[in-house]
C-alpha cells in the first residue's frame, strides 16, 4: 500500500476544484464584458410599469397616488424610446426618475460614472447634442443659452468654476432637456480639472426665446 496516494488524490481534487472555479470566474467575466449595459428605457409621461417592464436595469415600482422618485439598483444608461426624438446616454451612477400618478414625470441624471477630464466630458456633451440635432430637437434659447461647443472660448468658460455652461433643447412643444457642464472638485484627483455633466428631462419650463 502506498501511503502517499491519498495525499496525491487530495491534491489532485483541490487542483481540479481550483481549475473549475477559475473557469467559472472567467466565463462570468467574459459574459459581463460583452453583455449590454443595464438600461432604463422610457418615454416621458408613460405609465411607470411600462418603463419597468421594458428596462433591463431593475427599479422599484411607483407608489400609487403618490409623487416621488426612484433610483435604478445599478449603474444604468438611459435609452429614450420616442420614435422621433429618441436618444441614448452613457452609463450613469446618479440617475433619478420621478413619478406622479404612477407615470414618469421627470428624469435627472449625470451621464457618467465619475467626474471626467474635460476632453472626455466634452465628447459626451457633443454626442448628446448631435443626437438631438439629428432627431429634430431644437435649441430653446439659441442666443441666450447656445449649444455647448468645443472651442477655445467655451473651454475657457468651462474652466471657470463660477461659470460653466447650460443649454436647453426641446422636442416640439412636448418636453425639454437641460444639459449642463461644470467644473467639479474631485477629492480623488485633487491635481486634475474634473467635470460633471447634468441632464434633466421634463415638461417645458423655460419658454422659447423670442426672435
Task: List its traits.
alpha+beta, 4 helices, 211 residues, 2 domains, 30% helix
Notes on the structure:
There is one protein chain. With 211 residues, this protein is of the alpha+beta class. It has two domains: 1-35; 39-202, no CATH class. The protein is built from four helices and ten strands, in the order αβαβββββαβαβββ. A seven-stranded antiparallel β-sheet has the order 2-5-6-10-9-8-7. It has a three-stranded mixed β-sheet with strand order 1-3-4. The model is unreliable at 23-35 (pLDDT under 50).
Write the layout of secondary structure elements.
Elements: H1 4-34, E1 39-42, H2 48-54, E2 67-70, E3 77-80, E4 87-88, E5 94-100, E6 103-110, H3 118-135, E7 138-139, H4 152-159, E8 165-171, E9 175-184, E10 194-202
Parallel strand pairs: 1-3
Antiparallel strand pairs: 2-5, 3-4, 5-6, 6-10, 7-8, 8-9, 9-10
Strand content: 25-35%
| Strand line-up in the sheet with most strands | 2-5-6-10-9-8-7
Are there runs of 5+ residues with pLDDT below 50, and where? 23-35
Task: Give average pLDDT, whole number.
Answer: 88
Strand-pairing-aware structural class: alpha+beta
Q: Please, how many helices?
A: 4
How helical, in percent, are the residues?
25-40%
* Major sheet summary line: 7 strands, antiparallel
Number of domains: 2
Amino acid at each position: 500500500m502506498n501511503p502517499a496516494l491519498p495525499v496525491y488524490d487530495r491534491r489532485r481534487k483541490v487542483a481540479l476544484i481550483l481549475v473549475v472555479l477559475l473557469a467559472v470566474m472567467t466565463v462570468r467575466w467574459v459574459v459581463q464584458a460583452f453583455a449590454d449595459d443595464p438600461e432604463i428605457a422610457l418615454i416621458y409621461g408613460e405609465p411607470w410599469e411600462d418603463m419597468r417592464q421594458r428596462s433591463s436595469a431593475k427599479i422599484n415600482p411607483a407608489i400609487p397616488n403618490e409623487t416621488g422618485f426612484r433610483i435604478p439598483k445599478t449603474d444604468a444608461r438611459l435609452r429614450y424610446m420616442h420614435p422621433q426624438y429618441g436618444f441614448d446616454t452613457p452609463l450613469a451612477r446618479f440617475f433619478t426618475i420621478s413619478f406622479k400618478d404612477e407615470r414618469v414625470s421627470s428624469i435627472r441624471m449625470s451621464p457618467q460614472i465619475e467626474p471626467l477630464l474635460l476632453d472626455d466630458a466634452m465628447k459626451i456633451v457633443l454626442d448628446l447634442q448631435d443626437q438631438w440635432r439629428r432627431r429634430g430637437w431644437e435649441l430653446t434659447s439659441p442666443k441666450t443659452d447656445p449649444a455647448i461647443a468645443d472651442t477655445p472660448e467655451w473651454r475657457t468658460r468651462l474652466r471657470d468654476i463660477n461659470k460653466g455652461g447650460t443649454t436647453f433643447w426641446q422636442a416640439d412643444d412636448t418636453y425639454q432637456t437641460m444639459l449642463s457642464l461644470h467644473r467639479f472638485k474631485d477629492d480623488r484627483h485633487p491635481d486634475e480639472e474634473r467635470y460633471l455633466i447634468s441632464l434633466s428631462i421634463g415638461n417645458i419650463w423655460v419658454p422659447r426665446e423670442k426672435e
